[in-house]
Amino acid sequence: MPLPPAPSRRAALLAPEAFAITAPARAPQPPVSAPIAQEPARAPSAARARRKPQRAEPALAAAAAHAAPPPPTQVETRARASGTRQRQGANAASSAGPSVAPPIPSGARSKKPAAQGPAKLFVLDTNVLLHDPTSLFRFEEHDIFLPMIVLEELDSHKKGMTEVARNGRQASRTLDALAAAAQGADMAQGLRLDSTGQRAAGGHLFFQTAALDYSLPISFPPGKADNQILGVVQALRTLHTPREVVLVSKDINMRVKARALGLAAEDYQNDKTLEDGDLLYAGVLALPPDFWAKSGKNMESWQSGAQVYYRIGGPVVAQLMINQFVFFEAPGEPSLFARVSEIREKTAVLRTLKDYGSTRHAVWGVTTRNREQNYAMNLLMDPEIDFVTLTGTAGTGKTLLALAAGLTQVLDERRYTEIIMTRATVSVGEDIGFLPGTEEEKMGPWMGALDDNLEFLAKGDGGNAGEWGRAATNELIRSRIKIKSMSFMRGRTFLNKYVIIDEAQNLTPKQMKTLITRAGPGTKIICMGNLAQIDTPYLTEGSSGLTYAVDRFKGWPHGGHITLARGERSRLADFASEVL
């Protein structure tokens, strides 16, 4: 195959005639088969001629490197370094006819715009905005479409003082801010979601500005709002093919109907802290069986007061977190029950625990009955721990431990001024209506667990309650316990209080943040709940406020978490929790 002549001087461009030398050698092609016979006779050879030089360029460059002093590869490199000469070379190559390869393959030009912009178009249901008003900014680079019926439903939910009404008003204000930031822009082209400072959102927000043509089966009544949203999703999928259009809804039945129509539907996942409840941080780690064999030789130990400290190293340090409990139990070897108090690069310091299972260390007459309860009591009685989360099934002793520790630190040690107890007022069955009386009287029916545990603690059934416990009456204990409603928590500040939040699994992450941020200097907050008993609509184990708090506070030096594993209420309650 003949080669083009070498340039006459350094960095010179080849004349267009030089390219024509190689064209006749590649132009002749064998006869075209029948399926391509309908195309022009020169189309196959031209197409092959356009593709072939792209594959042969490395071979041509290598051959030219031996033929001429200035290799074509150097010439091409210098020509690309000069913008003017590069454009001239491209024009010269394009004038040589269809047999010359284009500088950039057409496929590369077509793929580049496709890689830009969002890959999906999400259609949001109303319940997503009412559940999380900031959901508009949680879809990264993807676009969002709001049907007009969603705005109508949003408008109908904005009145009232409930959490749903507040979220509806916040979502409406967010939409108004986006529209105000894009004044003068065409709404049909979409509003930039990052125009209000939300840099994580790179897509656009589209509103339904015209009627869409869709046809649903007769079994889907057209007057229902859910069916209108499904019709919009169906029409958008037809209009934007092959782009993926996805419906996002918290309503399970809505997603089932969408899938029955062949439409893509997903749950709103951005509010979930964990995909699986089994991945929740337990606060306890079992040390490996060879712990003493590997770590015993290089371990440092010392004693300070009643506690013994161990400095350990090895691969187990990477799995530890501050205030995490570790234990080692093996036959014939010394047991270890400790808490991680310090982590420095490749070493960690473990501190032994106080045994609250002994009657000598009973807290308001209560002794712990298992390992996890002892861990929990160590957190509840530690003045350096400001935030404690306790999870576990019914009967594991969450409320009893928290109350006993609170009474001891309020009445005996005077560490806190009073106990404040609150809970989410979400009923298991039908609501019984309005309750008469003051705030505490209205909260009385919700605080049955408090009454049951106070009766046990005040009567002294838990053992010797100490000097204060023997002298204190039920009224004295009641005078140090305040029952508050969550509805009036906003704007308050608790100073030197021992706050117990019961049934915290029914709180949303936003409500949990509102309660925890009420803590002032010297305040300790205890959140308790059973993630298997969530009664709030649209909340799951992964999106509960209790799960959110456990995941966010793990590893904080002044916070701790324990999952209570074994029930201690009665053999009947333990068996029922397992088999029912």
UniProtKB/TrEMBL annotation:
Superkingdom of the source species: Bacteria
Q: Where is this region: Disordered?
A: 24-113
Pfam (any one): PhoH
Span of domain PIN: 120-256
Q: Where is the composition biased (Low complexity)?
A: 37-47, 56-67, 89-99
InterPro entries to which the protein is assigned, alphabetical: P-loop_NTPase, PhoH, PhoH2-like, PIN-like_dom_sf, PIN_dom
What SUPFAM superfamilies does the record tag this protein with? P-loop containing nucleoside triphosphate hydrolases, PIN domain-like
State the CDD domains in the record.
PIN_VapC_PhoHL-ATPase
The UniProt keywords, alphabetically, are: ATP-binding, Nucleotide-binding
Does the record carry Mitochondrion as a key word?
no
Keyword Iron in the entry? The reply is no
Which family does the entry's similarity section mention?
In the N-terminal section; belongs to the PINc/VapC protein family. Belongs to the PhoH family.
The protein's name in its UniProt record = PhoH family protein
